[in-house]
Design goal:
Blueprint (H helix, E strand, L loop, with lengths): L1 E5 L6 E5 L1 H20 L11 E2 L4 H12 L9 E2 L1 E2 H4 L11 H17 L5 E11 L15 E10 L3 E11 L7 E2 L4 E6 L2 E6 L4 E2 L18 E6 L16 E10 L8 E13 L2 E11 L8 H9 L15 E15 L2 E15 L2 E17 L3 E11 L5 H6 L22 E2 L2 E2 L9 E11 L4 E11 L16 E14 L2 E14 L5 E14 L1
Antiparallel strand pairs: 1-2, 3-5, 4-12, 6-7, 6-27, 7-8, 8-9, 8-10, 10-11, 11-13, 13-14, 14-15, 15-16, 16-17, 17-18, 18-19, 19-20, 20-23, 21-22, 23-24, 24-25, 25-26, 26-27
């Protein structure tokens, strides 16, 4: 038996890989072999009206086409609607070699995903050690052993995806999951759905400050726009193509206030081909013992939710976050370049977000003739209220208050779900720099890697609510992942190393982690 103690947060947690776990893993691998034998012509994708969160290579291809003017609509509210992307791929624009290759890959994915009238069966099996605790846009297994199976069907108006996942020794205690499932109906240019889908709002690659795929998906009723065509009226046509996503979810896990509701709304638009703007807002409200009527929703929507503004703590509607993001693309000499930022307010003052968190990034992309298409990004996130650069600009040298971001007094579980932050994957009070990149080879195999450096929970001696570090921690991480298509679907593998140092005690901890995953549709 192999047993290891981890001490990432100074409290001490225990993980073990026993003989019993080994037997369970072998059983899962055996089931995977059965699936392999059934899936003689399996592919990595299946029917789906949306481009789902989690495939960085496909996101990179879509972003390449958006920056080239092939895709005119906004592409920072995930999942994206295939119905909006597919018609735009028949462009007559002159494209470079890597842009044309990106369009071909997106066409192939779209052709499979939008095929109607057929039932697709899908399966996924993963095994690993020390699961990746901090997720990026790339979809990685959440636990040491998972097996998933399901089916999907798309009709002229309806779409269904039913997925069941069994997890061995899950971190959150939930062995059976319906993550990835949905039932949707098209209503004109809108898709109304009940879903368990990952969502991602913003231009960042490492994470999003307001809604990322770090936590497991929140079960929700959602409304998304199918086509992002512009307003026809001259008063609003200047916005260009626009998108709107609305969700109302239920946070049913063990919380300080059980059965809290989650509201989210995002509006984004592209007034120019080189500029995309996003406006996002979320709120936790209702729940056992909390007000939950029309007045509560109205006060939340109008921003009347701060104690002291004729509102008592008992009647406070909820915990809100709101802000904006921008992404501009252009060229530096002949090299394509993009700059992006996201600002999210943890609080509100006179109907304006305040207590800002921030994220900044830059990225470039192109063709490496010998190896394929590449993308490189550099991203910095500061998840402490009134982030340092903002305070420097306004000349405020006072001390900063920790434990502000993603925390709340009545909703004391905070902006978290199933033990992970709903917003940025580094949770509150972090300052992290990430260098990342992806390479799509000529055979459409993908390599992806990141290097992370910074501090976690950096102003708090002890914060048990923080999901990644309960004490001040120096953080270093390096990750490598590879995806490769095979005859029976796709193999996804990852290997990483993480180093943490408790700055209060001086004790350090490091570990390797890895996973191997197969998925296919047949």
């Amino acid at each position: 038996m192999f047993t290891r103690t981890k001490n990432h947060d100074g409290i001490g947690t225990q993980t073990s890989f026993t003989q019993q776990n080994c037997r369970r893993v072998l059983q899962l691998v055996g089931m995977a072999c059965v699936l392999f034998s059934l899936a003689a012509e399996a592919g990595p994708w299946g029917s789906d009206p949306w481009v789902e969160v989690g495939r960085s290579s496909l996101r990179s291809d879509i972003q390449i086409l958006a920056d080239a003017g092939v895709i005119e609509g906004p592409v920072s509210t995930w999942p994206l609607a295939w119905g909006d992307i597919l018609p735009q791929l028949q462009t007559s624009l002159e494209l470079t070699t890597y842009q044309a290759a990106a369009r071909q890959r997106v066409r192939e994915a779209a052709a499979v995903a939008t095929e109607t009238g057929f039932i697709d069966l899908h399966a996924r099996v993963s095994v690993g050690a020390n699961p990746i605790q901090i997720r990026s846009f790339e979809k990685t297994p959440r636990d040491e052993a998972e097996i998933e199976a399901g089916l999907a069907w798309i009709g002229q108006r309806f779409a269904v995806r039913l997925t069941g996942t069994y997890v061995n020794d899950p971190i959150d205690g939930k062995e059976w999951r319906a993550d990835g499932s949905y039932v949707g109906v098209a209503l004109g240019n809108w898709m109304l759905a009940g879903s368990f889908q990952d969502r991602w709002w913003g231009p960042g690659w490492q994470s999003s400050l307001i809604l990322s795929s770090n936590a497991r998906p929140i079960p929700a009723l959602t409304l998304d726009r199918n086509s992002t065509h512009a307003f026809e009226t001259k008063w609003l046509s200047w916005l260009g193509p626009w998108d709107l996503a609305v969700m109302w979810g239920l946070l049913k896990d063990d919380r300080f206030i059980p059965n809290s509701h989650f509201f989210g709304m995002r509006f984004n638009f592209r007034p120019f081909n080189s500029l995309e703007v996003g406006l996002s807002r979320t709120a936790m409200l209702c729940g056992d013992g909390r007000p939950c009527g029309f007045k509560t929703f109205k006060n939340m929507l109008l921003g009347k939710d701060n104690v002291g503004e004729n509102i008592s703590e008992k009647d406070e509607p909820g915990n809100q976050m709101a802000g904006f993001d921008l992404r501009w693309s252009g060229h530096l000499a002949s090299q394509p370049l993009a700059l992006y930022t996201q600002w999210i307010g943890e609080d509100e003052n006179n109907f304006v977000p305040t207590q800002w968190l921030a994220q900044f990034g830059t990225e470039t992309w192109g063709q490496w003739d010998r190896f394929g298409s590449y993308r490189i990004y550099f991203e910095w996130a500061d998840t402490m209220c009134d982030f340092r650069l903002y305070r420097s600009i306004r000349g405020d040298d006072g001390s900063r208050t920790g434990e502000c971001a993603y925390n709340h007094s009545p909703y004391s579980t905070g902006y978290r779900y199933r033990g992970r932050s709903v917003g940025h994957s580094f949770d509150n009070d972090a300052s992290i720099f990430t260098l990342g990149g992806s390479l799509i080879g000529h055979q459409n195999n993908t390599w992806y890697g990141t290097i992370g450096y910074g501090k976690l929970n950096r102003l708090t001696s002890l914060d048990p609510r923080n999901t990644v570090a309960q004490v001040k921690t120096r953080y270093r991480e390096i990750e490598f992942m590879h995806s490769r298509r095979i005859i029976v679907g796709e193999i996804h593998a990852g290997l990483g190393y993480e180093y943490r140092k408790n700055t209060a005690t001086g004790l350090s901890d490091d570990e390797f982690h890895g996973f191997l995953e197969w998925q296919g549709t047949f």
